[in-house]
Amino acid sequence: MEIFNEIAPLKAFLKAKKQALNSIGLVPTMGALHSGHISLIEASKAENDLTVCSIFVNPAQFNNPNDLQRYPRTLDKDTLLLKKVECDAIFCPDSTEMYRHQPLIKFDFGHLDKIMEGKFRPGHFSGVALVVSKLFNIVEPHHAYFGQKDWQQYSIIRQLVDDLNFNLILHSVPTSREPDGLAMSSRNLRLNESQRQKAIVFFEALTFAKRALNDGAPLVQVQQKVMQLVEKDAEIKLEYFELADSKNLNLLENVKGASQPIMCIAGFVGEIRLIDNMFL
């Protein structure tokens, strides 16, 4: 496994390999890797001759400086894990390598980044689009892999690829969950034992809502019940629960009118923000 901290050596390595390869897969991450990330690596390895995993805590996508400072960083552990699953290359630059100058470019994705995560984290998706564009240009992958847990992010990157004609295929890999249903997330590392037990309420709320909506319950009624379920513990705060069309992220008032509706939820356990989703 090759490890690169700088762009130029990585590009030279990939250029030398490309003549003998049919395809390169890219798995962009911010590190603190877990089984969900490994499922992305495995999906890439199954479909490509070479897999690159990037590890970069991207400051451009954090609208909360404290969140950026406290985001888990476990590079040594991540490296050992990627070596174990036989990832071919790691790209782990620092901020000065990725942003040699303060970037001025901003992305606007219309309604896609004004709702849900975009509403509560202004500027977040512009930062995501910027770093993903950089990674696509650096690695020039044939395939790129993202987790379903961040469905709004995936939808925005899908729009980015389409609008800017990136020559690659995007893949969304199903969310990996703990045995009790909690969606795997790097932020879970920040939960204490009590908070970890409480955090499953978001999965429980989605499970309830799926059953209720499929049984014909009005969305407003389901949203009210979800809030009651989530906020029965004073340490937990619901930020949003929405029903959207997974193809275009248009918010829905009921399950009709969309071929594949998705429920999206976000909230806080203490000061730790978690998100999850579930297709109907």
From TrEMBL:
CDD domains linked: PanC (cd00560)
Binding sites annotated in the UniProt record for beta-alanine: 61
Keywords noted in UniProt: ATP-binding, Cytoplasm, Ligase, Nucleotide-binding, Pantothenate biosynthesis
Positions of the catalytic residues: 37 (proton donor)
GO CC, any one term: cytosol
Binding site for (R)-pantoate: 61, 153
Regions annotated as coiled coil: none
Keyword Nucleotide-binding found: yes
Pathway: Cofactor biosynthesis; (R)-pantothenate biosynthesis; (R)-pantothenate from (R)-pantoate and beta-alanine: step 1/1
Entry's localization field: Cytoplasm
EC category name: ligase
GO MF term (any one): pantoate-beta-alanine ligase activity
Biological process terms in GO annotation: pantothenate biosynthetic process
EC number: 6.3.2.1
Main location: cytoplasm
Gene3D superfamilies (UniProt xref): HUPs (3.40.50.620), Pantoate-beta-alanine ligase, C-terminal domain (3.30.1300.10)
InterPro entries: Pantoate_ligase (IPR003721), Pantoate_ligase_C (IPR042176), Rossmann-like_a/b/a_fold (IPR014729)
Residues holding ATP: 30-37, 147-150, 184-187
Catalytic activity: (R)-pantoate + beta-alanine + ATP = (R)-pantothenate + AMP + diphosphate + H(+)
Additional remarks: The reaction proceeds by a bi uni uni bi ping pong mechanism.
Function of the molecule: Catalyzes the condensation of pantoate with beta-alanine in an ATP-dependent reaction via a pantoyl-adenylate intermediate.
Assembly and oligomerization: Homodimer.
Homology family: Belongs to the pantothenate synthetase family.
Protein name: Pantothenate synthetase
The organism of origin for this protein: Pseudochryseolinea flava
Underlying gene: panC
